[in-house]
Amino acid sequence: MNEVDLNDNDFFRQATMCICGYLDFGQGMQQLLHYLQPFIPGDLMSLSLYEPELGGIKVKIEVNASEVNFPNIIMPLSPKTRAVMEGKTWPQIRIVNCPESDPVVRDLLPIYEKILPAFKNTNISLLLMRLTTEGLRIGTIALIAEGRNRYTEEHLRLFSMLNDPIATAFSNSIKYQEINRLKDLLADDNRYLQRELQHLTGDEIIGKDFGLKNVMEMVQEISRLDSTVLALGETGVGKEIIAHTIHKLSQRRQGPFIKINCGAIPPTLIDSELFGHEKGAFTGAVASNRGCFERADGGTIFLDEVAELPLKAQVRMLRVVQEREVVRVGGSNPIKVNIRIIVATHQDLQSLVKQGKFREDLWFRLNVFPIRIPPLRERKEDIPAFVNHFIGKKSKEVRLPTPPTLDKGAMERLMAYPWPGNVRELENVIERALILSRGKPLIFQDVVGSNDNDEPVTPSVPDEKLLDLDKVISSHIRYVLKRSKGKINGPGGAAETLGMNPGTLRHRMKMLGIPFGRLHGAPAE
């Protein structure tokens, strides 16, 4: 060893800068080895982890003057050595100048023979230090020099000063690697979900050249901009598909597409779900949480059934629409978000504004570019294309060897039906017919009611006395409930028939004043 006039503070500061100056812990170890050599003998430095479940030691990193290696060698230990490693008798730092005479290190010599071929069958000396941070053992670092009796108590004192910076750097390196791993997983999950959404929505919108031609022209026009879009239309007309198409055609297509059904979130949770919350904001908030607006940063957020937002949440949303910034529940600092907002509803927002159920200022800011999606009964020329598409798609899902044909008169029945549940109802009707057909031609006799005692699906009234939309929906829900004998959940339930989430259906029934549950004679679900 070279005799160097060494100041402890300078030594600690310079060594800490070496080990903490790199995100790659291996590079930091190599720089530290270079720095230590004038003061402490060392030809190689290794870091190992004790793996109790494996009953051995895993060598993670070894560095010398010219190389950084990650051998990941696992060396089994004897029961006696494992007991020492797991006990409290093993000192935090120790000098081993004669490995063959040390009962524990003697058990480890095969490891060093593997990672140090040059020292095989020769004498070595070791400085071994257990790395601890916040009271936890995170590994053991070894400084190895060729020859015996190379280390002194002064070397031990200097090396022991570096426990904290080495342990901190190694702990941070592990966390950094985990963050990168999780980022890769998140990116992979995002790509997978985008592919799944692409699969569910399809590459082509059915009816784009016929019933939805005007809609698609508007979609093409607005996609190149970041303006807020309001999609209007009855339940089941495909508002989500239109929203996703706008996203796919926009410059934000590589960013996230976050969809939220405002009517399916309990009022007590909606602020936290949309805007996020800070740690301790309420009981159970054990950590800070990003809301949907933050998760949509760089992409598009789609808020379905926006009319269901409580007035308190509408106030918060107004700030997001105006300023493109959110304030988490329990927080005070605004967080900027780069998002495109698309909202949808089947309700008349202007009417809700007059009733005091929807904020007028929010309505004005959402109604920048409204797109009305016509119901299926107004574009019946698209029904044959939908039928052909759903028969092919659903036949695979119900595992039919070949798609069945249509019975004589089946298409006429489908064209004559008013489809109050729109495309979603048509999809469910076709799936049910495929399940019952067993490969035979599809008839679709059930689309007009099964007997004379059934209520009509939609009231038959002159055009000049058209009913309110909520009354039409209420009538259809009551009809479906009667067909399902009051059952909402499960196979054959009203929610499945209508293509709705059971919770969303119950909420809609509550809003429309439709009774349900045991007290109203409905069977247990």
Name the descriptors.
525 residues, 3 domains, Beta-Lactamase, alpha/beta, disordered C terminus, seven-stranded antiparallel beta sheet, Rossmann fold
Explain what this protein looks like in three dimensions.
This protein is of the alpha/beta class and 525 residues long. The chain has 3 domains: 8-176, GAF domain (Beta-Lactamase); 202-372, P-loop containing nucleotide triphosphate hydrolases (Rossmann fold, 3-Layer(aba) Sandwich); 377-520, Helicase, Ruva Protein, domain 3. Helix content is 42%, strand content 14%. It contains 19 helices and 14 strands. It has helices at residues 8-20, 25-36, 79-86, 103-115, 153-160, 163-201, 213-223, 239-249, 270-275, 292-295, 311-323, 349-354, 360-366, 383-397, 410-416, 422-437, 469-483, 494-498, 502-512, and strands spanning 44-51, 56-63, 68-69, 73-76, 93-96, 124-133, 136-146, 229-232, 257-261, 300-304, 325-326, 335-336, 340-345, 369-372. Strands 1, 2, 3, 4, 5, 6 and 7 form a 7-stranded antiparallel sheet that branches. Strands 9-10-13-8-14 form a 5-stranded parallel sheet. A hairpin with a 4-residue loop joins strand 2 and strand 3. Helix 14 crosses helix 16. The protein is elongated and about 100 Å long.
